[in-house]
Write a structure and sequence with these properties.
The chain is mostly helical and about 230 residues long. It contains 8 helices and no strands. The longest helix is centred in the last third of the chain and has 35 residues.
Length: about 230
């Protein structure tokens, strides 16, 4: 089995892509856990939460391997600090996924009819925003091959703009959800209210982090294009 360090021999971005693939597995499980919740399948909710925790740990192992070996590569095509910034943001996404799982096991929740449709839109928008950021990371090798210029660079810039717009859409959906939740404040328990509030906040970090990744890649593009 190849180590992360060996992957650096070709491109430092391959290691970021590997880590992002592990993060993506966590994100996919978030979608699964809410499907289980929608079906009131609490046993599956607990089981998927454990799976997310294991996947988050695998992402942590990959992250630590990258950090430990990045300094051994003396000829990086981009600033090491910039790569580590992106790695940290990717790691935050995996952490947020694990946090969602923990929140859903604190209490048996129901996906309330009053905001079920809006919530599903919100969830999908955050996942959709993450997927575009993941696709951006997968384009980094192509950027390297084209010296961060030309049609490939323009393609990635458009993807970054898409992430920013989708994050804005996710923000709007969150505001709508929060309004619905506060309308229910008197009819649901305090514990239920707080947990849903935390769930909305934690899920929103998926699109926030995706936008942050886009911002870091845009900075790399601007630096390399000078």
């Amino acid at each position: 089995m190849r180590t992360i360090y060996k992957l650096f021999g070709k491109s430092p971005f391959i290691s970021l892509q590997y880590h992002m693939s592990k993060v993506g597995e966590c994100v996919n499980k978030v979608e699964e856990i809410f499907k289980a919740l929608s079906n009131n399948d609490y046993d599956s909710v607990k089981s998927i939460c454990k799976e997310i925790s294991k996947l988050e740990h695998a992402a942590d192992v990959a992250k630590d391997d990258i950090r430990n070996n990045l300094s051994k590569n003396l000829f990086l095509p981009v600033d090491k600090g910039k790569l580590l910034e992106i790695l940290k943001i990717q790691d935050n996404i995996a952490d947020n996924c694990e946090d969602v799982g923990v929140l859903l096991t604190m209490k048996e929740l129901n996906l309330l009819d009053e905001f079920k449709d809006d919530f599903n839109l919100f969830l999908q928008k955050n996942i959709e925003t993450y997927k575009v950021a993941e696709a951006i990371i997968q384009q980094m090798d192509e950027l390297l091959e084209t010296s961060f210029s030309g049609l490939e660079a323009e393609k990635v810039r458009n993807m970054i703009d898409s992430v920013s717009y989708k994050e804005h859409e996710a923000d709007n959906l969150q505001q709508k959800l929060l309004s619905r939740l506060f309308e229910l404040e008197e009819s649901i328990s305090y514990g239920t209210f707080i947990i849903w509030l935390k769930i909305f906040e934690t899920l929103s970090k998926l699109s926030d982090s995706a936008e942050n990744i886009g911002d870091r890649v845009r900075t790399l593009l601007n630096i390399k294009s000078k």
